[in-house]
Write the C-alpha cells for this entry.
Amino acid sequence: MSTRERLLVVNADDFGFTRDVNDGIVEAHRNGILTATTLMANGAEFEHAVTLARRHPSLDVGCHLVLVGGHSLLGREQAYPRDVAGLVSAMLRGQLDVEAELDAQIRRILSVGLRPTHLDTHKHTHLHPRVLHAVGKLSHQYRIPWVRRPFDYPMHAGAVPLSRRLLARGLGFLRNWFHSVLNSYGCRTTDHFAGFAVTGFYETPELVELLGQLPEGSTEFMTHPGFCTAELQQARTRLKETRQKELAALTAKETREAVERRGIRIVSYREL
C-alpha cells in the first residue's frame, strides 16, 4: 500500500478580474486554505491585484491566460471572442495569433516584478491543440514549469448537475494526448486535479466531503472565491454569489479540521 503524502495546492482563478474578487482571494489565503492564484494580465483590476500580491508574498502567483472575454494586450480595441466556440472560429479563420497573445500576457506579469510559477487558461482553452502547444512552448521559454491538467479525479459531492459531471468525465478521453504534448515541452503537472465539475455548486459540507476523497500524491483544487459586491454583480460572469460561498467554505473551521483529520499537507506550487 502506498504511503505517499496527500499534497493539496488550492488555487484561485481570476485574480485581477474585479476588486472584490481580488480581495476575496487574499482573504481566502490569509484566513483559509488557499495557497495560490492565477493572475489575468488583461483583467480590469490587474494593478490592484499586483498591489495585493506584493503585500502578500506568501501567495503563490501564476498566469491565468485569457483568450475568451476581455481585450487583447496587443491592441486595446481588439476584443477576444466571447466564448470558446467563437475562439475556435477565430483561430480557424486566422484572426488570432494565439502564441503572440499569450506571450504578451506573460510578459506583462513579468514586467511588474512577479515571477509566476504556474500557468492555466480561462475556460480551459488549452484543451484545444493550438492553445496547448502555445502554452507548452511559453512554459518552456519562460521557465514556468507547472501547467494545469483540467481533468477531475473521480469524486462525488453535493448537487452537481448530471450534465456537468458527464462533461467532466468526457474530457478524460483527451488525457493521454494532453500529457504527451506537455511532456514534449518539459512541463509539469500535479498528479490529480479537482474543481471542474463542482465550480459554482459547493459550500462547506461539499468541500469537506471532497477533502475526504482526496487521493495520494499532489492535487490542484481550482477555486473561484470572492466578495460579491455591486462591482461583481455588474461583471460579465456566471459566478457571482457562488464566489462568496466558496470563500466561506475555504475559510471555514470545518474545512481546516478536515485537512488536519485527513493528514493533508496544504502547499503552493513553489513547494512542490
About this structure: DSSP finds eleven helices and eight strands in the chain.
